[in-house]
Amino acid sequence: MKRIAITMGEPGGIGPEIIVRALSGYRVRGSIPVVLGNSGIMKDAVKLTGLPLKVKTIKNILQVKHGQGTINVLNIPSRFPARRGRPSKSAGSAVVKYIRKAVELALNHEVDAIVTAPISKESLHMAGHPWPGHTELLAELTEAEEYAMMFVSDKIKLILCTIHIPLRDVPKKITRTVVKKTIHLALKGAALMGIENARIAVAGLNPHAGESGIMGNEEVKTIVPVINHAQAQGERVSGPYPPDVVFYKALKREFDIVVCMYHDQGLIPFKMLSFESGVNVTVGLPIIRTSPDHGTAFDIAWQNKADPKSMIEAIKLAIKMELRV
Questions:
Q1: Cys staple from 278: which of 39, 109, 128, 153, with CB 3.0 to 4.6 Å?
Q2: How far apart are CA 182 and CA 191, in angstroms?
Q3: CA-based Rg of the chain, rounded to a whole angstrom?
Q4: Do residues 166 and 194 both lie within one domain?
Q5: How far apart are CA 258 and CA 241, in angstroms?
Q6: Dihedral of CA 268/133/278/20: which sign?
Q7: 220 and 258 inside one domain
Q8: pLDDT, tens digit, for every residue of 24-44?
Q9: For the chain, what is the largest distance between any 2 Cα atoms, rounded to a whole number of angstroms?
């Protein structure tokens, strides 16, 4: 029986609610989910949704049992302020505990994959933590040297060369090493999803992909040589394509994955197309990790309004990828 660890995420956000809603219809044969978080919060979330579920509090992973209508929660005690729908120092401390435990269990092969509910970067910083998000924290905990954020939906798939850095710093971070690494991770991620010999499209950094150096030389100096090398190795990599064209081509199934130069270059079209069902995957870790492609949604948190589709897809993809490891 495959065990899937789901971290509860930001207690004041929509994480607990979307977990409850996702697990209310959980029907994946051969696998069983376990939530890492606070049992009291999860019981409140069940009460909020009004779904016929029970929370079973466990002290260790060996106590996890499959049972329809039951949510197994590995309780990690923590205290939170009474008000919800906002970041807090206590929440920032708690979410790191959940993630640390999930990684520990995954590295020890006590769980087969982890799915992380959204966390607040502001809460992390309020608690004194340096990481800008899940990706960097997971990379540090697993000692991963090469990793990237990949985003997956039925409509489009993409991967990022740079992640959480200011836009002004992006050009100097786009090196041949970074682009080459990201193409490699794109192929690895595609294989985990069952896409063999994937067609990889590389987006340019500048408007019109630099127009042969007229609008910037990053394409000519950095990106094109990497693509040429990949092609010489027999990889189905092409580009660089103008950023305002490449996503349309991917949507029309001309490519399997788009390599994007920076965060918003990829996330704007992705969220426009797949906001409710997109999944974030950290490629390059020694463990399987997926997450809903949205944030804590403090504006609707604890109002019984959150949509669980992205969480459902994240769980399904984690299982699919684990089976191919």
A1: 153
A2: 14
A3: 20
A4: yes
A5: 10
A6: negative
A7: yes
A8: 876 666 688 999 999 999 999
A9: 63
The confidence score (pLDDT) of residue 307 equals 94
Instruction: Please name which of 257, 262, 240 lies closest in space to residue 155, comparing C-alpha atoms.
Output: 257
Q: Which domain holds residue 6?
A: 1-144+285-325
Q: What are the residues whose beta carbons fall under 8 Å from the beta carbon of 165, sequence distance 6 or more?
A: 173, 262, 263
Type of residue found at 299: D
Residues 6 and 49 in one domain: yes
Q: In the block, which residue shows the tokens 């992390």?
A: 124
201 DSSP β-pair partners: 238, 258
Q: Is the pLDDT of residue 82 over 60?
A: no
At residue 212, the 3 state secondary structure works out as coil
Q: Considering its fold, how many domains does the chain have in total? A: 2
277 and 299 co-located in one domain: no
pLDDT of residue 68 exceeding 80: no
Show Cβ contacts of residue 7 under 8 Å, excluding neighbours closer than 6 positions.
Answer: 35, 36, 37, 95, 98, 99, 102, 114, 115, 116, 117
Identify the three-state secondary structure at position 82: coil
pTM, rounded to two decimals: 0.93
The token pair that represents 322 in the structure block: 């684990």
Listed residue (179, 171, 121, 181) closest to 145, CA to CA: 181
Are residues 273 and 297 located together in one domain of the fold?
Answer: no
Q: Are 138 and 318 in contact (CB under 8 A)?
A: no
